[in-house]
Design brief:
37% of the residues lie in helices and 29% in strands. The chain has 251 residues and is of the alpha+beta class.
């Protein structure tokens, strides 16, 4: 082998070794930098992460600005303090103290009220539970219909005030008690009554079974005629046989 051939082979071997070293270096770079040389893959990932963060911030801002949804219903921004104040106003109840509130009936039969320096020339009473607590939880209202306060129990007031309260309730919730049913006819959806009450004999008309007769308890009935007058049957079992026969088809 000539010296020139030996030199050529040695140079070719050196070039191959250099090329192999470059390929090894290139592979190492690819492992350290995702998606190829030059770090292009890392740049793509970083840009994507930034976009996700920006989108998250944008969505968060939109969520805060938009009305919240609860159960499919939109709810606008609310003020907690104002809501609590409104609730306090709703549940605020003024009970009239027997030592301060004095009821009386005027010469004209009008119920009046004096609470310290407050004076009401005419007040109206409304029972919250007219059949279960007749003398308790009574709403006292002025001439405009605004509530002044609540009488928790009429029995706690002095004799004069109690008598005035009960007299007003008897007048407002006047309901003669039916002692006997002398006649009862059902014509064209109306009931024609002929009865004997503790206040005498009465004849009246009611609109029908559902509208005219209202059960208070199992044996106690309230009968309301077409003009709003009320009649009471305290105990249907205390009625005579004929009266019960009239009621059998109605209750």
């Amino acid at each position: 082998m000539t010296s020139s051939n030996a030199v050529a082979k040695q140079q070719e071997k050196s070039e191959k070794e250099t090329e192999n070293e470059k390929q090894i270096d290139q592979k190492q770079d690819n492992k350290e930098t995702p998606n190829g040389p030059g770090g292009k893959g890392l740049s793509v990932v970083t840009d994507s992460a930034k976009k996700d963060q920006q989108q998250t911030k944008s969505d968060s801002t939109k969520t805060d600005d938009q009305p919240k949804r609860d159960g499919g219903l939109e709810q606008g921004p609310t003020n907690t303090d104002d809501g609590l104040e409104d609730i306090d106003k709703i549940i605020e109840i003024r009970y009239l103290e027997p030592k301060e509130a004095m009821f009386s009936t005027t010469a004209g039969g009008v119920l009046s009220l004096q609470i310290g320096k407050e004076s009401y020339s005419k007040v109206d009473l409304y029972q919250a539970f007219p059949f279960t607590f007749e003398n308790k939880f009574i709403s006292v209202r002025n001439e405009k219909g605004d509530e002044i306060g609540i009488v928790a129990d009429a029995d706690e007031f002095d004799r004069k005030s109690k008598d005035a309260i009960l007299h007003e309730l008897q007048w407002r919730y006047y309901a003669p008690q039916i002692l006997r049913i002398l006649g009862l006819k059902d014509e064209f959806g109306h009931l024609y009554w002929d009865v004997e009450t503790d206040r005498g004999y009465r004849k009246f008309v009611t609109r029908g079974r559902e509208d005219g007769i209202q059960p208070i308890t199992e044996n106690r009935l309230l009968v309301v005629d077409m003009t709003g007058n009320r009649f009471e049957i305290p105990n249907i079992n205390a009625l005579d046989t004929k009266s019960l026969r009239y009621l059998e088809s109605l209750v």
